[in-house]
Design brief:
With 101 residues, the chain is an alpha+beta fold. It has helices at 4-27, 64-100, and strands spanning 37-44, 47-55.
Protein backbone atom coordinates (compact mmCIF):
# COMPACT_ATOMS: atom_id res chain seq x y z
CA UNK A 1 0.00 0.00 0.00
CA UNK A 2 1.39 3.37 -1.03
CA UNK A 3 1.40 5.95 1.73
CA UNK A 4 3.53 9.03 2.29
CA UNK A 5 5.09 7.31 5.29
CA UNK A 6 6.08 4.15 3.39
CA UNK A 7 7.47 6.22 0.51
CA UNK A 8 9.49 8.42 2.86
CA UNK A 9 10.66 5.39 4.87
CA UNK A 10 12.04 3.87 1.68
CA UNK A 11 13.90 7.14 1.13
CA UNK A 12 15.34 7.01 4.64
CA UNK A 13 16.55 3.44 4.03
CA UNK A 14 18.21 4.45 0.76
CA UNK A 15 19.66 7.58 2.34
CA UNK A 16 21.24 5.67 5.21
CA UNK A 17 22.81 3.29 2.69
CA UNK A 18 24.12 6.32 0.79
CA UNK A 19 25.55 7.74 4.02
CA UNK A 20 27.18 4.42 4.97
CA UNK A 21 28.67 3.98 1.49
CA UNK A 22 30.07 7.50 1.52
CA UNK A 23 31.50 7.02 5.02
CA UNK A 24 33.17 3.81 3.88
CA UNK A 25 34.68 5.60 0.91
CA UNK A 26 36.09 8.37 3.11
CA UNK A 27 37.39 5.86 5.67
CA UNK A 28 39.20 3.95 2.91
CA UNK A 29 40.63 7.02 1.18
CA UNK A 30 44.22 5.81 1.53
CA UNK A 31 43.55 2.05 1.49
CA UNK A 32 45.56 0.53 -1.37
CA UNK A 33 43.32 -1.10 -3.97
CA UNK A 34 40.07 0.22 -2.53
CA UNK A 35 37.52 1.29 -5.14
CA UNK A 36 34.94 3.89 -4.20
CA UNK A 37 31.34 2.68 -4.25
CA UNK A 38 28.00 4.35 -4.96
CA UNK A 39 24.46 3.14 -4.30
CA UNK A 40 22.10 2.78 -7.25
CA UNK A 41 18.52 3.88 -6.66
CA UNK A 42 15.50 2.48 -8.46
CA UNK A 43 11.83 3.42 -8.28
CA UNK A 44 9.61 0.92 -6.54
CA UNK A 45 5.89 0.61 -5.97
CA UNK A 46 6.07 2.42 -2.65
CA UNK A 47 8.92 4.86 -3.17
CA UNK A 48 12.51 4.04 -3.92
CA UNK A 49 14.70 1.00 -3.42
CA UNK A 50 18.35 0.08 -3.52
CA UNK A 51 19.02 -1.56 -6.89
CA UNK A 52 22.63 -2.29 -6.02
CA UNK A 53 26.04 -0.86 -5.26
CA UNK A 54 28.38 0.07 -8.07
CA UNK A 55 32.14 0.39 -7.89
CA UNK A 56 33.40 3.63 -9.37
CA UNK A 57 36.25 3.69 -11.84
CA UNK A 58 38.82 6.34 -12.51
CA UNK A 59 41.61 7.98 -10.60
CA UNK A 60 41.82 8.67 -7.76
CA UNK A 61 39.81 5.78 -6.40
CA UNK A 62 38.33 7.95 -3.65
CA UNK A 63 37.94 11.63 -4.45
CA UNK A 64 37.09 13.66 -1.35
CA UNK A 65 35.84 16.45 -3.62
CA UNK A 66 33.10 13.99 -4.65
CA UNK A 67 32.54 12.37 -1.26
CA UNK A 68 31.94 15.52 0.78
CA UNK A 69 29.09 16.81 -1.45
CA UNK A 70 27.69 13.25 -1.46
CA UNK A 71 27.74 13.29 2.33
CA UNK A 72 25.87 16.61 2.44
CA UNK A 73 23.31 15.51 -0.17
CA UNK A 74 22.71 12.18 1.57
CA UNK A 75 22.22 13.95 4.90
CA UNK A 76 19.73 16.38 3.34
CA UNK A 77 17.97 13.47 1.61
CA UNK A 78 17.48 11.60 4.89
CA UNK A 79 16.38 14.74 6.72
CA UNK A 80 13.84 15.61 3.98
CA UNK A 81 12.33 12.12 4.11
CA UNK A 82 12.15 12.25 7.90
CA UNK A 83 10.34 15.60 7.62
CA UNK A 84 7.77 13.97 5.31
CA UNK A 85 7.23 11.20 7.88
CA UNK A 86 6.75 13.76 10.67
CA UNK A 87 4.30 15.83 8.60
CA UNK A 88 2.31 12.76 7.55
CA UNK A 89 2.18 11.60 11.15
CA UNK A 90 0.93 15.03 12.23
CA UNK A 91 -1.76 14.94 9.52
CA UNK A 92 -2.88 11.44 10.56
CA UNK A 93 -3.02 12.48 14.22
CA UNK A 94 -5.05 15.56 13.30
CA UNK A 95 -7.54 13.42 11.37
CA UNK A 96 -7.82 10.99 14.27
CA UNK A 97 -8.36 13.84 16.71
CA UNK A 98 -11.09 15.25 14.45
CA UNK A 99 -12.90 11.92 14.24
CA UNK A 100 -12.54 11.28 17.97
CA UNK A 101 -14.57 14.38 18.85
Amino acid sequence: MFTPISAAASGVRLGTTWLATTASNVANDVTPGYRAESPIAAPSGDGVSLAGITTRTGAPNVDLAVEMPNLLMATDYVEANLAVIRRAEDAYRSMLDTFAR
